[in-house]
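Working notes for the structural subgroup meeting. M.R. asked for a predicted model of this chain before we commit to crystallization trials. I am recording the input and output together here so anyone reviewing the notebook later can reproduce the run.

Input as submitted:
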Amino acid sequence: MRAAYYRVLCPLYVRRIGAGTQFFGPIRLGRPFSNVTIGSHNMMGYGVFMQTGRASSISIGDHCSINSFCHLVAGERIVIGNNVAIAELVSIRDQEHRFHPDHGVRGQGFDVAPIMIEDNVWIGRGVYIGPGSHIRRGSIVGANSVVRGEFPPNVLIAGAPAVVKKELD
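Returned structure, recorded in token form:
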């Protein structure tokens, strides 16, 4: 029922929702006419929040799960591949406030860089993924990690800041 509701409202809020995508509660979109594309056969948990700017986009592949209370905020671009599992309370943001000790955070602008999460990635609970991050295929991101930067394929990434802990077979 929710999927039908979102498909009817789709032109007002997102570019496309693929067939077979299920919604397990309301999702929150920052504003109408967002540049959000959701692929086929996905699972969207309760209270997922997605926001894009005027010239930014969020693209989610097929067969993904995005669990409850995740936030995806794009100032430029967030791309999530196919068969990606994202646990609850994950924050994916391609922009961060600049900070200067003499002036604080207000009025300092943002650092913005696109985020790419390739196919077959598993992201644990409470992870933060920041601007410019590139998580390659077949990787696992441990719970509560703070991810920034580029990582090779098929690795376990964990920590704050996140580092490669081991290669996966």
